[in-house]
Amino acid sequence: QVQLVESGGGLVQPGGSLRLSCAASGSIFSIATMGWYRQVPGKQRDMVATITSSGSTRYADSVKGRFTISRDNAKNTVTLQMSSLKPEDTAVYFCNSKSVVAGIRYDYWGQGTQVTVSS
Description:
Low-confidence stretches: none
Number of helices: 0
Shape: globular
Number of strands: 11
Strand content: over 45%
Helix content: under 10%
Structural class: mainly beta
Order of helices and strands: EEEEEEEEEEE
């Protein structure tokens, strides 16, 4: 079982920065692909950024050049550094862990943290 706890959300002005953190429990963190997703009411949850166990990253086109995902396997944490924030970045941001162990897929979600970009 993996538990994911996000922190760092809040209200920020357009052009500002925020740093989201996700602390993970469980022994499979180091092999998991970690990711950040976001969701606005009435819409599907979309991928923002992912990072594999080897450090390969992938970003949604809308955040490339503005967001950076990183992980610390020693501390079981994944971070999303967000800069040049726009009102359209407003959403609930969720931390995600995906892994496959002995052929079984595991997919865990955090509870989400609200990010609001507004003047």
